[in-house]
Design a protein that fits this description.
The protein is of the alpha+beta class. 15% of the residues lie in helices and 28% in strands. It contains five helices and 22 strands. A seven-stranded mixed β-barrel has the order 13-20-17-18-15-14-21. Strands 7-6-9-4-1-11 form a six-stranded antiparallel β-sheet, with no helix packed on it. A hairpin with a 7-residue loop joins strand 17 and strand 18. It starts with a strand and ends in a 10-residue tail after the last helix.
């Protein structure tokens, strides 16, 4: 069986895809990868479908032994150097490029820098059953992914069929280009459960991510938000990006492993275009909220999709440092073909 033998699981390594939609009416969270943009780009670097399951790494990456003939991996989402030990020699590879591997290679992913999570794509994918049409891990419910939990030392993660080696690619642009300073929201659906002063405070004061931050949500620290109608409502639907405010007056941004309904009033909802940025906030990070209309949020989602298409189009063959990319020079009309007499 083709597999990765886990030598060190890292801090929190799980199998994730785009999540399991269509089951929230049964109380099943969507789960899935926190940073969809990182997953799409990582899969593109190994020539895999953009929705193929990846390994989501948390804070510290894993170490593993390759037990398949050929494999290509790529990491996107945080800065990291990846060590590959082969035949007694160690090579160091950067993130955002294809890394070809073969049977017997020992791979070590170190600490993530710049973001608490990243996506490690595997060219052949993982050979795991679908649970409600998804391979995503929901650890709190003990289902999906690899035995419903994070990877552990000694696990053998089964891989899909070996893929022929492809072109070594890289993403030239840094990703993300810069940490988010502003998260855009649509106010409501229970904005009227807060005093006007609380809404103004929510939009004008900085907020800091606390240590209580995980795949379920980000608890924020800042000025207390006052409720105008109490802090309980009839339980209703929660979506990824809903911002609940319990009795403490401190907001909680709900993420992919959130519950499907809840009884705290929601002051706002993060727009689709800014959801991936939430996966890039480490405890201690601070930012502001800014309100937009629902139509503006839809426009920003389309604009971000266009930016992602440009990023995907920018993926190019990797070239060693110092090597001139003549094809790129021709494309930009910076050099001309030789003139023959």
């Amino acid at each position: 069986m083709s597999a990765l033998k886990i030598i060190d699981p890292g801090l929190l390594t799980t199998v994730q895809d785009f999540g399991r939609g269509g089951a929230q009416r049964y109380g099943v969270p969507v789960s899935g990868v926190r940073d969809r943009e990182a997953m799409v780009l990582a899969n593109a670097l190994v020539g895999a479908p953009i929705d193929q399951a990846v390994l989501e790494l948390g804070y510290v990456g894993p170490a593993f032994l390759v037990q398949t003939d050929t494999l290509e991996i790529a990491l996107v989402g945080a800065e990291m150097q990846i060590e590959v030990m082969r035949d007694g020699e160690t090579r160091v590879f950067p993130d955002r490029r294809t890394i070809p591997l073969k049977r017997g290679d020992r791979v070590r992913c170190g600490a993530l820098r710049g973001a608490p999570s990243a996506c490690l794509a595997l060219s052949c994918g993982v050979d795991l059953p679908l649970v409600l049409n998804s391979q995503a891990t929901f650890a709190k419910g003990s289902f999906g992914g690899f035995r419903g939990r994070a990877l552990a030392q000694g696990d053998r993660l089964p891989l899909g069929g070996a893929m022929p080696p492809g072109q070594i690619l890289c993403l030239p642009a840094p990703f993300p280009a810069a940490p988010a300073q502003t998260i855009r929201v649509v106010l409501g659906p229970q904005e009227d459960h807060f005093t006007p002063e609380a809404v103004e405070t929510f939009l004008t004061r900085p907020w800091q991510v606390t240590q209580e931050a995980d795949r379920m949500g980000l608890r924020l620290d800042g000025p207390r938000l006052s409720h105008a109608k109490g802090y309980n409502v009839t339980s209703d639907a929660i979506v990824t990006g809903s911002i609940q405010v319990p009795g403490s007056g401190q907001p909680i941004i709900m993420l992919v492993d959130r519950q499907t309904s809840g009884g705290y009033p929601k002051i706002a909802t993060v727009i689709t275009a800014d959801l991936p940025a939430l996966a890039r906030f480490s405890p201690g990070a601070s930012f502001h909220f800014a309100a937009v209309s629902a139509s503006e949020g839809a426009h920003l989602a389309r604009a971000r999709a266009a930016e992602m298409a440009e990023l995907l189009a920018s993926i190019a063959p990797w070239r060693p440092s110092g090597q001139i990319d003549e094809a790129a020079l021709y494309r930009e009309n910076l050099i001309s073909p030789p003139i023959l007499d």
